[in-house]
Amino acid sequence: MQYGVRAVRDRTDAELIQECLDGHSEAWDFLVHRYSRLIYSIPFKWGLQREDAKEIYQSVWLDCFQELHSLRDINRLQAWLVRIAIRKCYRFSTNKRSRPEDVEIVETDHASEDPSEGLIARLDREQLIRMSIAKLTERCQQVIKALFFEDPFPGYATIAARLGLSSNSIGFTRDRCLERLGKLLEELGYEH
Is this model's pTM higher than 0.85 or not? Predict the structure, then answer.
């Protein structure tokens, strides 16, 4: 089976899961890539340190690899991964607090709670945004990332120079990219 950058954007989770189960390592790589940022972000939302986040991230993907065949609803992969990650964060933070030798424990709002539906909903929305941005053209991705994610803000002149455009056309390009992003989000079922 031939895999290309464009092809993976169009593959559903169900298709990738089936290909993983059929032994296609490229499908596994694409599946991990699709949800890497989402899974890696969860431990940070719990206030965990980078090394702990790496450990949880690896553990989530190990569980996924070992249990993928048992996933009942392959259309719910994202929710399943999020729940695995949240449970691991909860257990990790609970275990860490119960060890007396760990004096410098960062308490978080989530440390004493069960995984919250609010957190899951927020993570779902963030993932939909990432997936939608990934479906934009390269130019629109650059515009969106520069305008909304770069810190400090690079300014219109810098963005225009990067893209080989005039400064006056950035507003039009921004509006067109945001309109396309809005449509993609709507197609994926994004709710405010």
Answer: no
DSSP-derived secondary structure for 72-90: S-GGGHHHHHHHHHHHHHH
Give the CA distances from residue 49 to residues 99, 107, 123, in Å, rounded to whole numbers and listed in that order: 17, 12, 19
One-character DSSP codes across 167-179? GGGHHHHHHHHHH
pLDDT of residue 117: 62
What is the tens place of the pLDDT at every residue in 153-188? 888 888 889 889 888 888 888 889 989 988 988 887
Encode burial over 133-143: b for 16+ CB neighbours within 10 A, e otherwise: bebbeeebebb
Structure tokens at 14: 């169900």
| Rg from Cα positions in the chain | 19
Residues 10, 90: Cα–Cα separation, whole Å = 34
Owner of token pair 């929305």: 125
Phi and psi, residue 73, nearest 5°: -115, 95
